[in-house]
Amino acid sequence: MIQNPKNPPENPERPKRFKMVARKKTTKKPLQQQEEGIKTRSETTKKRKEKEKQLEEEEEETEVKPKRRTKKQKKQEEEEEEKKEEEDVKEVKEEDVKPKRLQYSIVSLLHDVKFNEIQSEQIQKSPFANMLFAIIEGSIDEQMVKKSDPILVKLIETYKRGQVKFLLAGKDIALTNLELGVIFGITSGLVKIHIATHGRRPDTEFANRVFAGASTMHLPTMRVTIDNILKPPVKKQKKKQKQVSEIEDAKELACLLTLYTIGTLFFPTTGPNLNCSYLKLVEDWENSVNYNCSAFITNYLVNELNSKNPTIVGGCTTALLYWLCEHTHIMEPAQHTFPRFMKWKMNDLAAKLVEAPLRSLPEGMVKQPELELTEQERGLFAALDLHEQEELQQRIEVLEKENNVMKVKIEDRDNKIQERDLLIVELHQNVESLQNEISGYRKQSADYTDIEKETCSLHFEVEMLKEDVIKNQVEIGGLYVEKDIVEEKIEEVTEELHDIAAHCVSQHYKDQKIIEELEKQKNNLTEHKQSKNVHHHESPIHDEEAIEEEIDQTIKFTISSINAEPQKTTKKRLRKAHTMDPSSLTKRVNKREDRKEKNMEDFQVYRRKTRKEKQAEKTAPELQYMGVEMKNCNIWVLK
């Protein structure tokens, strides 16, 4: 079990987030350390000399005759001091020259490790399985994956905030979720990841067993437990086999390797700790591959790039160096393997950038903005591609339906416009005929005054007709609106009638089925009754008890058959007039269903009464035969 140790290791903690200091050349680092070591050693020698002088002065004050040192003694002391300083410098140089192992590297953890079949099956369920197996099977060194901070700073300085693009040789190259997943071989699913950085440790079986009493996950102790599972000690191996089975042990190893990869590579934090909120990714281990880890890791890195200084960036910054190699011709791949990070050596990248710096890259050094994927790499995003195709197909179907609906509406409008045009033509013809009549009356008005009056009346009639025409147009528009409303109501009523008819048919089918079962049971009971009459004289009490058992069996059978029938429900569509009162037919259907529920309640009450009557019949066996007949009658009436 992993717990926070009381005495943590004395190794220096990592700086907060990702703190990088730009330097001109990486080769100057050991020289600087040598100079610092020499300074510290010289300071210690100075302090030693000052103490010796103080002691000598104290001795001179106490002694009357001070001791004199000869020249030989002074030379010997000076030579001894010089030798001590040279030894101190040698120690510092040896410490700087020795290659340091990466403190929390997943590569150093899986060095010279082999998984058994059970462990391989469980690790295969991890989203980082391709990367873990590639590290074990491939010949990879820690120095090959060691990142260079100055190169990262220069690369991040070319980033365009808010655009998720880098400026290389005058070209804007975007960073996508797909590229990061291809580089590390991360399997991505459809489930999006939402993790709160602050919160309590989740109360799960795995967390309580492995991280009992710990508020955070300590990476060094997590590494120790992984080593113990991979290389268990000889003494404790038998006890461990009793406590945990091999499958659970392999599952625990796979979960810890996934969390260790998250804490060391994808989400490095302050010091050797990992937030317990990442336990969510391993709670449902069987479905952990369905998480979209590549999108989650890329989004976190992009947020850090948009909001942070180039020298202080969190997240998986190592991926940016591999991304640079994939999009440029700065380096040639060592070998074509899967995943792609196995092709590149980070220790050679600094030397190559001395020949071709990032700021002065020629155009020919930059590749195409999109990576060419192999079939194996496309398989990492098979679930996402399938989901996108389904969404696209659904969108096409919806657009086709909308297009058909719009065509129908356009045809209806065209028909209405034609009808209105015909009405307008007729009205114009009427107006012209009236105007012709008026012109004839005007010619005759010069001779007859009566004709002038008639013309006035005709003018009045024309105005009235115009008003009638306007009213008729308004009424026609209202009739079209009412027609649409009536058609909508007719559609709603027809849908309700279809639903009611379907419900009635299904209910009738159920009732018919129940009636057939009851008739079969009735025939069975009559046959048993006849057999009882034949053996009544021999042992009537014995016959009655057998009939009661059969009755109980038939009752149980009927209840189980009624309960076993699936209740078909029809999901109604939401309508505009959904809040209206149900029709009389739906009320009748509801009454029938309520009546069935009431019959079931009456049956339960009747069952309780029959249990009490059984006890009474045992005391009076002479009334047993009549009681059985009455019970049978009650059962048939109830059904």
Give the helices and strands, then pairings.
Blueprint lengths: L27 H35 L8 H27 L8 H4 L7 H7 L5 H9 L11 H9 L1 E2 L4 E4 L2 E4 L2 H8 L20 H6 L6 E2 H12 L6 H7 L2 H21 L6 E2 L5 H4 L9 H15 L10 H10 L21 H7 L19 H4 L3 H64 L3 H86 L5 H25 L19 H36 L4 H15 L1
Antiparallel strand pairs: 1-2, 2-3, 4-5
Helix pairs in contact: 1-2, 4-11, 7-13, 9-11, 17-18, 18-19, 19-21, 20-21
Describe this structure in words.
This protein has 639 residues and is mainly alpha-helical. The protein has 4 domains: 1-18 and 30-53 and 78-138 and 198-287, no CATH class; 147-193 and 291-372, no CATH class; 386-447; 485-638, no CATH class. The chain is built from 21 helices and 5 strands. Strands 1-2-3 form a 3-stranded antiparallel sheet. A two-stranded antiparallel sheet has the order 4-5. A hairpin with a 4-residue loop joins strand 1 (159-160) and strand 2 (165-168). Helix 7 crosses helix 13 (293-307), helix 18 runs antiparallel to helix 19 and helix 19 runs parallel beside helix 21 (624-638). It is flat.
